[in-house]
Structures are given as structure tokens and as C-alpha cells.
Design goal:
Layout (H helix, E strand, L loop, with lengths): L1 H4 L6 E3 L3 E4 L3 H12 L19 H17 L5 E10 L2 E11 L1 H4 L1 E8 L8 H16 L4 E7 L3 H10 L2 E10 L2 E11 H7 L5 E3 L14
Parallel strand pairs: 5-6
Antiparallel strand pairs: 1-2, 1-9, 2-3, 3-4, 4-5, 6-8, 7-8
Length: about 220
């Protein structure tokens, strides 16, 4: 079975409403269709790479290709895990957690997107809380980083709720204009002080070597 060769296909994160896991090919197609229908107001661009500025068919295809490319480039020293987010059994978005030299740095980064019709319901907070639990409780991370443009108020609201603190800025050129990217840092202590969403993790131990950690 595929999970025997790549145990991350067995990993499951669960919150009161959501399940996060790697998608099957059919579920990946469903995710692509969600993205093609829109993940943000077309008047703004919340991503460093403006992948959603393409025609809908290209947006959908880019979701599939990006997912495959992340898995194909995987090494224990540098990895990016794009977990599909399921609400009531339907794919609604993607929550990413990534790291470089995690066994040494004990730092992860996160990013995400969510279909527009599912926004404003607390799902973004719940899905990020799931991967933060994976990072801190499951993997022993010391800190997590994220960033969002200054006008991405929804993302900043999620970060504040989960305990992130400002960690400097970057100046970016997005759609030919200056955009301020606000960096954010979450320490293990702040995560522990702010966590309120219960999360369960299944089948993590077989994945540890792929994440750069020794099995217990």
C-alpha cells in the first residue's frame, strides 16, 4: 500500500469540525475546483506568488501541480506538507506546514487558503490550530512563523487569536505596487497560553523519519 512507502498518507489531524490529511486524487480534483471558484476578493492579492490571478482552469491545474511538486521534492531536511481541509467530508481548503532542518531549528512555517464560501466561519482559525498542535505537541517545535500583508485583516485576526506576536516587516512588490508584509512569530509558551481548540493526531509516529525526527 502507498502508506507503507509514504506514511504521511496515514496522518490525520482532527478538530471539532475538521479533518486535515493528504487528499486522494479525486479529493485533490475537488480542491482544485474549490480554488477555481475563488479564494479571495479579486481586487486584492493576499499571496506572495499571485497564483490566483490566472484563469480558473489554470488556477485549478496549479493546485494539482503544486501538490504533486511538494511531495515530489520532499526530503527530511526540507519539507512542505499541504494538508487538505475537510468539513463534513468535503474539501474546503489547504493548510500548509513546512520546515527546513527542523531537527535543528525546531521552527515551522504555515500558510493556507480557504474557499470563499467557507470564510468567516472560524474555519481558518481551526485549521491553523490543528497544524500548530502538530508542530508543538506532536513534533516538539519551539516556534512557528507566519506572515500576512498589512491589509489581510482576516489572517491577522487568526494570528492574534492564536497568540502570534509581530516580528518585523518585509517590503514586497505585488501586482506592480509596494505591499507591506508583516511577519509574525508564535513561541511555544504563547501557543500553550492561547490554545483553546482540541486537536487529535493519528498515525504520527511512522511519519517522524520523513519529518527529520527519529521514531520513539
Amino acid at each position: 500500500m502507498l502508506v507503507d512507502h509514504f506514511p504521511l498518507f496515514g496522518l490525520r489531524l482532527r478538530t471539532p469540525r475538521l479533518e486535515l490529511r493528504l487528499p486522494s486524487p479525486e479529493e485533490l480534483a475537488e480542491l482544485a475546483e474549490v480554488a477555481a471558484k475563488g479564494v479571495h476578493d479579486p481586487e486584492v492579492m493576499p499571496f506572495l506568488v499571485p497564483w490566483t490571478d490566472r484563469p480558473a482552469a489554470e488556477v485549478a491545474r496549479s493546485v494539482v501541480q503544486h501538490h504533486w511538486s511538494q511531495l515530489g521534492a520532499w526530503t527530511p531536511e526540507e519539507w512542505s506538507l499541504d494538508l487538505a481541509v475537510f468539513l463534513d467530508g468535503r474539501a474546503v481548503g489547504v493548510q500548509e506546514i513546512s520546515a527546513r532542518d527542523f531537527a535543528i531549528t525546531r521552527r515551522v512555517a504555515t500558510g493556507s487558503w480557504l474557499g470563499r464560501r467557507h470564510q468567516g466561519q472560524g474555519i481558518g482559525t481551526e485549521m491553523r490550530a490543528a497544524v500548530l498542535h502538530l508542530a508543538f505537541a506532536g513534533l516538539g517545535a519551539h516556534e512557528a512563523v507566519s506572515s500576512a500583508f498589512a491589509d489581510n485583516h482576516a489572517s491577522h485576526a487568526v494570528s492574534r487569536k492564536l497568540g502570534y506576536q509581530p516580528n518585523g516587516i518585509d517590503r514586497r512588490a505585488i501586482r506592480g505596487a509596494l505591499t507591506i508584509d508583516r511577519r509574525l512569530l508564535l513561541t511555544r509558551t504563547a501557543w500553550d497560553d492561547h490554545r483553546t481548540i482540541p486537536v487529535t493526531i493519528d498515525a504520527l509516529e511512522p511519519c517522524l523519519p520523513l519529518l527529520g525526527l527519529a521514531s520513539t
